Amino acid sequence: MNSVRNSPENFPLHRAALVGDYDAFKRVVEEGADVNELDQAGRTAIMCAVAGQRWDDISAAHESAFTSARLNIIRALVSRPDVTLYTLNAPQEAFRGVTPIGMAAWLNLYDAVNALLEGSLQSVSVDGMDTHGATSLMYAARDQNIRVVQLLLQNGARPDFRDRNYRTSIQFALPHPPVLHLCEEILRQHRWRETKATVRGSTAASAFDYPADFDFGGEISVPSIPIASVSKATKALIRAVVSSDVATLHSLLSPLFLSSHTQDFQCLVNAPDLKGWSPIHYCASGRTPCVQALKQLYYAGADVSLFTAKEHFTPLHCLARSGYLFLDEERISLLSDFLIGLVRDYRAPLAARDKEDETCIHIAAEHGQCLNVLVLLLELDTTGQVRELRNARGLTALEVAKPEFRLAFGQDERPSSSCSIYTLRPATSYSSMVSFFDLPDAPQGLEASAPSFDSTGMGQRLVTNLRLTSPAIHHDQNTSYFSHLEGVLGEAEEISLELIAHFRARTEDTSKELLELSATARGITNLFETVSRDADAVTEERGIESINPWRSKRGSEDSQKTMVSTGSATPPSPTSPGFAVKSEEKATSKWKSWFKRKPSADRLNIPASPSPSPTVGQTPAPSPIPPVSCFWSSPSIDNALRTSQVVLTKARRDLLRIDERIAAGQGLILKANQAISRTERIIQKAIRKRKVLVSDLRQTYSNRRLGSRASPGPGSPNSLGYSQFVSSKLFSRNSMTSLFSNSSANSNSTVLESDDDETRVVRRLVLRKIDAHISAAQEEIDLVIQWLRIVKEVVRGVRRRAYLY
Q1: Do 112 and 260 reside in the same domain of the chain?
Q2: How far apart are CA 328 and CA 360, in angstroms?
Q3: Residues 80, 121: Cα–Cα separation, whole Å
Q4: Whether residue 166 is found in the same domain as residue 29
Q5: ANK repeat boundaries (predicted)?
Q6: In a 3-state reduction of DSSP, which class is residue 4?
Q7: Most CB contacts within 10 A, which of 126, 549, 577, 710?
């Protein structure tokens, strides 16, 4: 579906989207263009419409260049029922690996971001990650695009998601206090709601509580934030943290939970001091680990993967570098509880690296003062992967460890303390936190493990050797030449064994990858079914009407417009041409009428913002939903529940298509295995035939020298069908060398006239067919890995936004 095609009929769609020609776009859609296809450059039409022609020109005014025609094209494309989650969310290498919504946020295109989220009914993942692990919120926060930040946060974007380098939107917002305030406020609400979600079944409790009348759906005001006030508040927080004054810390943070409408600045929990350290860093490096202080900072919005400005230390690096000793049982127990809270409960990243590419385990092993800190960090590294990471010097933690600390890396040396981490259980685990590395990684196949094997070169040598020993050519009549032929055949046998083993190893590895992907797909299907059941139950319980804009209101007359039938077992066929262009407004009118009622990001009051103040939006209509507890009274949760049926139906359809892609890959591997077996049989037959040839040549030559009468007469054909009496010129070593050179030069693209049937078949199978099947299967795997990652994120996004834990 999404492989790069060279079909010219698809390119007009992309050209129209790229230049913003809406009339041409409508015409191409009516002619049946596939909105899921990539053009020759590997671009989707949706991304072309978002990016435009000058997306990579830093001097271009992207906001003013974004035309209404491009906006209409985006709306038409994302609202089509046949558009896949892959097309809506996949990173695209032609655009530096960015997703469509990431590109819109990067270019500060507020209307494009809104169209992607609203027009797709949340099928565009607000937290979708690109190839760098970055989300759209990270781009908007980094560039202080406040209106886009507001819009993303109102649609459920998470400020604590991490990219490949474990940076979050909080990290990117540090230079921009208004953006940081918005991210922290939303993060506080997210974390508080997670503890209140009854489906989770957790006993965890927040360190703070919102008042019963707190308006989660109201405006999030950003007060004027003087730099002096930020510095003063940060110093107060740090003093309370360093002194482990939990009561004072609580009094400083509690006002953050009173109201989101206050115009009085309180504090920014993640703001750094002049040293570049935030309160969470001082909390982790304190003399006495304080679990209560850590808990208060976490629920107030602290980022546990936040990096310091100079050293690029995370809180775990700060703890590992601290010079305090933890020797007695009580202090070891406090340290263990603190680390469990930081790593297991709040998911601080062990694998994060500082500016020298060193993990916290590197730091604890080389610069730490306490062996118990290193032991506990190693026990938290349950897979053993972090300790094997190498720093900028190319060394592992064991290789940089102090001699007296190396025993911590042994298999048998375990702490005898009763406070070992294995005797303690975490209170809870926040599995909704996502890092780029939580998602499926591409399996490593044979090509990655043995890149030195040149199957093409080996195949060419095999074909050359078969040509040199072919019964269809003339051969010299001397013993040295016969010995040479035997050597060539011996080499051909060795090459064939290596090639067959190589191809079989590749198919075996690819088959394993496909089986693993099948298991992953089943796991995501189970997740999908669980989220679907929970969403249906909560939606029904709350009396919320789900949105399905493609459901026919006129019975079977419009059945072709239905997105997917409830009992369908196969993906629906593409809709009729022009569906999105002709019926877009009608199809989504119900959704848009409700969407306008929810608090818009335009209503957020930000007097300190450098951007112009947005126009006050339409006054929200009274909610038709019955009164519920303050926990559920949030338009963002209502939004997630209303659109859940649309999003999950697309996910279900994509999972069916993914199954088809996996089956296609398995079919390709089956064909490859059949071709390998056929190749093996033909090579064995060809070599046996050539061995008989050499044996007969030797026998004939020997008989001739002894004057045997058994030799065939002049011109008589022998049992192998070639003439023994030919010009000595044809049998010269120069002739053989010439043939070798000619064969090598032409084996890739030319079939020689002297090739026998076996050589031709082997050449085709070894140099083209087998590799083509395996490579095609690998392409399917690459596609499926990305597609599964997207579907998983979309389904998890429904669960996160509706708090279906």
Answers
A1: no
A2: 23
A3: 11
A4: yes
A5: 8-40, 132-164
A6: strand
A7: 126
Task: Give tens-digit pLDDT for 403-420.
Answer: 999 999 984 444 444 444
Residues forming beta bridges with residue 435, ordered by sequence position: 162
Same domain, 56 and 149: yes
485 CB-side CA count, 13 A: 31
User: pLDDT tens-digit profile of 567-607?
Assistant: 333 333 333 333 343 444 443 444 444 434 344 444 344 33
How many Cβ atoms are within 10 Å of 624's Cβ, its own excluded?
A: 11
Domain interval for residue 671 = 456-525+658-793
What's the CATH number where 329 sits? 1.25.40.20
User: How far from 699 is each of 474, 531, 694, 719, 748, CA to CA, in Å?
Assistant: 16, 78, 9, 13, 35
Task: Please give the Cα distance from 83 to 789 (Å, whole number).
Answer: 17
Task: Find tokens 């940089």 and name the residue.
Answer: 400
CA atoms 752, 756, 757, 762: torsion sign: negative
**Residue 732 CB partners (closer than 8 Å, separation 6+):** 476
Which residues, at least 6 apart from 167, have a Cβ–Cβ distance to it below 8 Å? 138, 305, 307
Q: What is the mean pLDDT of residues 562-570?
A: 36
How many domains does one find in the chain? Answer: 4
d(CA 262, CA 608): 14
Would residue 487 count as lying in a domain? yes
Q: Are 599 and 635 within 8 A, CB to CB?
A: yes
Q: Which residues are CB-contacts of 662 (< 8 A; sequence separation ≥ 6)?
A: 514, 517, 518, 521, 780, 784
Report residue 426's pLDDT band, with 50, 70 and 90 as the boundaries. very low
Under the phi-then-psi rule, with left for phi > 0, alpha for psi from -120 to 50, and beta for the rest, what region is 539? alpha
Residues 162 and 122 reside in one and the same domain: yes
Residue matched to tokens 């119900």: 590
Position 734 pLDDT exceeds 70: no
- Highest mean pLDDT among 46-60, 355-369, 752-766 belongs to 355-369
- The pLDDT confidence band at residue 456, using thresholds 50, 70 and 90, is confident
Boundary residue ending a domain (174, 199, 220): 174
- Give 321: exposed, middle or buried? Use CB within 10 Å, 0-12, 13-18, 19+: buried
CA distance linking residue 462 with residue 767, whole number of Å: 10
Return the bridge partners of 168, or none.
162
Q: Judge if 758 and 714 occupy the same domain.
A: yes
Pair (409, 312) in one structural domain: yes
Listed range (38-52, 104-118, 478-492, 608-622) with the worst mean pLDDT:
608-622
150 band by pLDDT with thresholds 50, 70 and 90: very high
